[in-house]
Amino acid sequence: MTGREGKRMTTTKELCERLDALEKKARIAEDYVAIANLQAAYGYYVDKGLWDKAADLFASDGTLEIAGRGVYVGQDRVRQYLHQLPEYGDGTIFNHMQLQPVIHIDSEAGTAKGRWRTLMMVGFLNKEGRWGEATYENAYVREGEKWRIASLHGIINFYCEYDEGWHRGGVPLLRSTAGIAPDLPQSFEYEAHPKAVIAPFHYDEV
């Protein structure tokens, strides 16, 4: 083998390694966009009370836990829970913005975790209007070729009357949902503002 042939083989190996690395980065980038779209879609469906569409975003064994009301296990139970929430219609606002994502993906395993912030505006004409803000610590799983929510955990940071503001305190968390009991107790005990709460992080560094 001449020196030139040896050099050509080494170059080919390096190119293959670089190609593999680029393919992995491209897959992670594609997965990141898919997961971001998935979570944003959830927020848009909640905005309009499209509970079936929101439930369809969950994995078959996915879980939902919101505001310390316990854990609902499985897509069917998530759907049942969501259908206990008020219907969307005239005079109703359910704005549910999904912001500030920190996402970590294991593309080969088909799993991911993400931290989000949601800003909420909830109101019913001539009845009530409230601001809310929560941290989501979620997990995701690839089912077939699509990403789905494996677990959605919303930790409420504050919830208050719109005209009084958070400087006057907040509305105590509702610990149950009428008509449907959870499958499991809440992950940890907490109360929202004015009590201080820090949602557990799925990461130590980025």
CATH architecture call: Roll
Roughly how many Å is the radius of gyration?
A: 22 Å
**Gross morphology:** elongated
Q: What is the strand arrangement across the widest sheet? A: 2-1-6-5-4-3
Taken in chain order, the helices and strands follow as HHEEHEEEE
CATH class (first level) name: Alpha Beta
Question: If you had to describe this structure to a student in words, what would you say it looks like?
Answer:
29% of the residues lie in helices and 35% in strands. It has a single domain, classed as Nuclear Transport Factor 2, Chain: A, CATH 3.10.450.50. It has a 6-stranded mixed beta sheet with strand order 2-1-6-5-4-3. Strand 3 and strand 4 (111-124) form a beta hairpin. The chain is built from 3 helices and 6 strands. It has 206 residues and is of the alpha+beta class. It is elongated, with a radius of gyration of 22 Å. It has helices at residues 3-47, 51-56, 75-82, and strands at 58-66, 71-73, 92-106, 111-124, 128-143, 146-161. This is Nuclear transport factor 2 family protein. InterPro entries: NTF2-like_dom_sf, SnoaL-like. It holds the Pfam family SnoaL_4.
Q: Brief description of this entry?
A:
The protein has 206 residues and is of the alpha+beta class.
